[in-house]
Design a protein that fits this description.
single chain, about 260 residues, alpha+beta, 16 strands, about 30% helix, about 25% strand, binds 2-amino-4-trifluoromethylsulfanyl-butyric acid, binds cobalt (II) ion
């Protein structure tokens, strides 16, 4: 069942989404070689609680951390750990909050130092595909229009692997609502979108093949071929002529550019 939001509810969701963007901005300021992901996760939890919100991932279906920190060949749902981040690593930082009862949930991939041209291009193209998907999130279009736009730009144009096992989703009082938003599919298929539909759109794109597996911890998703994977996610509201992006990458990008430890695509 799809739950459409009133304008007032969308404004509440914008506040939740913006708190995630602000947390990701703090992350962008902190990232450096030598930092452990477990210390980053701790900072993320504290920042969210200091802003009168709850880190929504913690205890979600038993998930044991505040955030998902996925390095290199980890696609999503990476556990924070005691390993130092190294120059040339890429890290997807995925954060969720509940603020005043509403969920924000989005992600950004950073490069610590230089991961090489190929990987920088994967980062750039995955982010582009997210915006191409968002362009299709308008009333009257179908979910498959978003899916097709993402797959067309990444798989068809660049030969990257689009992960099939994990998808975007509706977002609201619950983190995962209907409908599912796959990053692959056919134009003109799937549920028709109406104004007030709020979605988390989240391409997960592999440099190599699309195949992934889940580790014995029950969470960590890795590429089968060991090649890197990139993940970007925005929270959006479907409108008549143009989707309203509730999250805000501009503050994250500003901090990313100012941090000399980070490479930007
Ligand atoms: N942002 C992710 C999603 O959309 C991660 C949630 S998994 C969790 O599904 F367990 F960490 F919460
Ligand atoms: Co999500």
């Amino acid at each position: 069942m799809i739950i459409y939001k009133t304008n007032e509810q969308v404004e509440q969701m914008r506040q939740s989404a913006l708190l995630v963007s602000k947390t990701l901005t703090e992350v962008a300021k902190m990232l450096r070689p030598g930092l452990t992901t477990v210390s980053l996760d701790k900072m993320i939890g504290e920042f969210i609680r200091d802003h009168k919100a709850i880190p929504s991932f913690l205890n979600y279906r038993g998930y044991p951390f505040n955030s998902c920190l996925s390095v290199n060949d980890v696609v999503v749902h990476g556990f924070p750990n005691k390993n130092d981040l190294k120059e040339g690593d890429i890290i997807s930082v995925d954060i969720g909050v509940i603020l005043n009862g509403w969920n924000g949930d989005h992600a950004y991939t950073f490069a610590i130092g230089d991961p090489g041209k190929e990987v920088m291009q994967l980062i750039k193209v995955t982010k582009e595909s997210l915006y191409l998907g968002i362009e299709k999130a308008i009333a009257g279009n179908r979910i498959g229009d978003i899916s097709f736009a993402i797959q067309d730009h990444t798989e068809k144009k660049y030969g990257y692997g689009v992960v099939r096992e994990l998808v975007g989703h509706g977002l609201g009082r619950s983190m995962h609502e209907d409908p599912q938003v796959p990053n692959f599919g056919k134009r003109g298929t799937g549920p028709k979108m109406k104004e007030g539909l709020t979605l988390a759109i989240e391409p997960m794109i592999n440099l190599g093949k699309k195949d992934v597996y889940t580790e014995d911890d029950g969470w960590t998703v890795r590429t089968k071929d060991g090649k890197p994977s990139v993940h970007f996610e925005h929270d959006v509201c479907v409108r008549k002529n143009k989707a309203d992006i509730l999250s805000d990458y501009s503050m994250i990008e500003k901090a990313e550019k100012a941090n000399t430890n980070l490479f930007t695509a």
